Amino acid sequence: MGIENLTNIEQISKIGNVPIFKATYSSGSVSIAFTAGMAICADGSPRAYHPDDIGLDWLDNAKDGGKWVGIATDSNGNPYIQSPNDPYPGYYVSQTKHVNPGFSVSDPRRYIDAETVAYVVVPDAILKLGVNMGDKAIVTNMSNGMRTEAIVAELGPDNEVGEGSIKLANMLGVPSNPRGGGVSGDIGYRIIIK
Question: What is the DSSP string of 93-110?
C-alpha cells in the first residue's frame, strides 16, 4: 500500500466497553479498528496446554464450561494428546480457528503457533462486520510506538476484544506470559477487510 489518508471513520458497533470503528482510506482500503488492551493467547502453540497444567497457559483457559475450546478433540469431545513423534509429547494439541488444512485435526502443525506467528484474537461479533480468518492486521502499541503486522487467527470470547498471540506481544514490547502478561490499554488494532 502506498500513502493512505483517512477519508472517513464511523463507529459501527461496541463490544463490551470498546467502540468499534469502520475506517475508509483514500486508497480504497477499508478497516475495522479499535483500541483496547492486550490479553495473551497461547492457543496453537504445541506447548500451550498439558493435562498436569504445566503448559504455557492455564488449562482452564482451554475450556468454556465443560467444553474444550483451545484444544483439538475427536468426534466424541476427547482431547488429542501429542504422540512421541510430535513436538511436545504428552501435551494437548492446541487448536486455533485459522488452520493449515494440509494437516489432520490431531496434528499440531495444523494450527497457528502463538509462539512463532503474530496473530490477533477476535470475537464472532468482529467476524460479522466483514473480518475473516487470515485477514491482515496492523497492531500498534501506542505507549511505546512499536508497530507490527499480524493476521487474524483465533476466535475469542463473545464480549471481549484485545487479545494477541505470544509472538505479537513480544513484537510490541508487551509482557507475553499467558499466565499473567498483557496490558490493560493503549493497543491499536486495525484489521484490513478491503
Answer: -B--SSB-TTS-TT-GGG
Contact partners, residue 144, CB within 8 Å, separation at least 6: 172, 173
> Which tens digit of pLDDT belongs to each residue from 111-125?
999 999 999 999 999
C-alpha to C-alpha distance for 70 and 118, rounded to whole angstroms: 17
Model's pTM, two decimal places? 0.94
Candidates 128, 120, 115; CA nearest to 162 is 120
Backbone CA torsion sign across 66, 69, 71, 74: positive
Domains of the chain and CATH, by start: 11-41+115-192 (2.40.40.10), 43-113 (no CATH)
Give burial (CB, 10 Å; 0-12/13-18/19+) of 179: exposed
C-beta separation of 66 from 58 below 8 A: no
